[in-house]
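Side project, low priority. Logging it here so it doesn't get lost.
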Amino acid sequence: MEKRLRNNVFRRNFSCYIDSSVVWLFGFIYSILSIRDTESSSFSRVSAEIGRKVKLPCITEITGSIHVQWLDPSGTALTYDESVQTGDSRFKIDHPYLREWHLEIENARRSDAGNYTCSIGPTTIVNSVVELAIDVSPSLIRTSGNLSSVVGNQVTLFCEASGEPKPTITWTQLTTNNGSKLDLKHEGSELNISAATIEDAGTYECQANNNIPPSAVGRTRLEILFGPQVTVLFREVSQNKGGSTLLTCLVRANPAKELFWERNGTIVVNSDRYQIRNWETGEYQTTFGLFITGLIDSDFGEYRCIAVNDYGRAKGKITVNEYEAGKVRIIATPQDVLVRVNDSVLFECSVHGLDLGDSLTWRRVLPSGDLQTIFISHLSESSISSLGSFLNETFQFDHTKYEIQGQYSLYVKQVDFSDGGTYVCDVSGIGNFSAELTVVDKRAFCGNNNRADVFDGDRVTLSCSLTYGGLAPNWHITWTREQQPVASVADDSLGSIKRKLQFNASYPHSTGTYQCVVTESQLGYLSSCRVALNILSSKTGNLVMANGTAESCNYVSNTLVIVILSSITVVCFIVTVISICWFVTYHKQEMTKFKEPFKEPPKPKSKQNGNVDVEMALLICSSPSPQPPV
């Protein structure tokens, strides 16, 4: 009986202890971890154009008696409740409803941009921050202006612009034929030409645009300096004694410093019988002529057209023959040629001595293998058409596309890829002479952008392509990284040549500038493009630049969050350990306290004494529970 009583008393006291301890433990942890918000904040962004009215929002969830104050970006008070605290009459409060305290700014200025604070109090402080961005149309800060460069050198055009938001800059090139614009498919403040060619000369236009009209446009004139190039249209001419003849050559040079004709090592000068003429026939191009009248025996022979400037010297040779009636002679035959899109080309087929019984026909071999008749000498267009039907050939003389110049040479205007192919000059009774026309794009193409961002370890593919029409010449294509050769893979198709680089991105070995150079030495073609490759360190978007630094705002913010969470976890762990230790210690003390009265219980001598013991035990259980330390 007594043992059972002692156990009941112990269990009751132990239960009271457990309840109090648990309540204390949770109260202690809650007091450590619970945080009461005495201040909160929000952030928003508003944009406006200069001169327009703008409203900055401020809506509070707090009810009761409050005060609202707006502060400008420098922290100066603008308003207090509905009272304006600044002398600038453009500011005022819009308080349409109980919880709305908007700040209105009339005639927004560029200087108004910044962070405005709507502070609500006084009991619980709530700060609402509104960023005001003033939209500003683009304006050019500076451009590269007019530039000149020697052919083959690297040229950088630049165009810097300001505006809000930051404008995007695109580049176009004005063509010389009709003033149209060629989209260079490039964005950025700089336009790099790795190896300047003659075709790169001209006017470039940069356009800055941020969707706030009007956009800003700047122009740069690029002049390419190069040595003379002399083209002779007719290498031989024939004329009777006493007659007159005109010798011409096309000279392309910049600058065109010195031009002259030479006969038997002697410079030809203007006289009664020799007249020297110049005609400007295109950009950097001059037709240089020598008109000879009253031909005598000493006038027949070889003449040289010579051009000289600071970058080189070039010459062309023309032979003047005495005309022999009744004899057909081939003076010049067409040669293979490579030109860029929108250029024009001349196929020589100079013949002397044709009479009414002879004919000369120009034809083109179509991709299907059929022949297209372009021109037949000594025939009207109606007779040419009927003859074309009789021969089952496709024929139509297109004056807008073709011209016959000199002694039956064919001039093809503004070629495109479809004009590439074989052209045939057929002289009756003599034979036919053919030449290949290859039309290529203005420049090699490495993609829409000259920059590529990839992740470290990703598979990278860089492509360099060139589109062409006609016969594919002997192309030579090389990829380099920081001027060191890199092996590439051929991926050619009909009408296009392509070289691809494929590798796994690896920092820093893959980082750098990759350049593709396309050349054709026989026909004299050179073009290039390049791509700057940057390596991203991980999928989180950290960019590893060429100098080995990292750019990541996410990295800093993520690290801060991790540190805060880790600190909270450590504090919770320490509090839990301390609580458990206190719990165990306190438990041992109470166990000792409860067990000591019952170590040697006295034997009951009477019923009265037994009742006294029971009352004492009940008094102990009914005593207040142990209180946790404050």
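Brief comment: The helical segments are 2-33, 381-390, 553-595, 607-622.
Revisit when time allows.
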